[in-house]
Amino acid sequence: DKGLAEVKDFSSIDSAPEEKERGITINTAHIEYETENRHYAHVDCPGHADYVKNMVTGAAQMDGAILVVAATDGPMPQTREHILL
């Protein structure tokens, strides 16, 4: 047993009814797991300015990031800001 992480569908992470209805993130979601070589943390944060400061503080410890852009909407004005962070 390698202690592999449980697979979670996006709908189980972004689970607040209002978030699903509006297609936005209101509450943060945080999932962590480890492999033999690394510790991973996936965080879904609202794009609101109050959350960005905290996200930057936590991001200082990261070795990498994944930026997800909706194919239906494409890059939004805040996408460039998130890349720079």
TrEMBL record:
Q: Gene3D superfamilies annotated for this entry?
A: P-loop containing nucleotide triphosphate hydrolases (3.40.50.300)
Q: Where is the Tr-type G domain?
A: 1-85
What keywords sit in the KW lines?
Cytoplasm, Elongation factor, Protein biosynthesis
Protein known as: Elongation factor Tu
The answer to keyword Oxidoreductase applying to this record is no
> Which InterPro entries has this protein been placed in?
EF-Tu_GTPase, G_TR_CS, P-loop_NTPase, T_Tr_GTP-bd_dom
| A single MF term (Gene Ontology) | GTP binding
> Where does the record place the region Disordered?
1-20
GO CC terms of this entry: cytosol
The UniProt record lists the keyword Cytoplasm = yes
State the species of origin: Winogradskyella ouciana
What lineage is this protein's organism placed in?
Bacteria, Pseudomonadati, Bacteroidota, Flavobacteriia, Flavobacteriales
Annotated Pfam families: GTP_EFTU (PF00009)
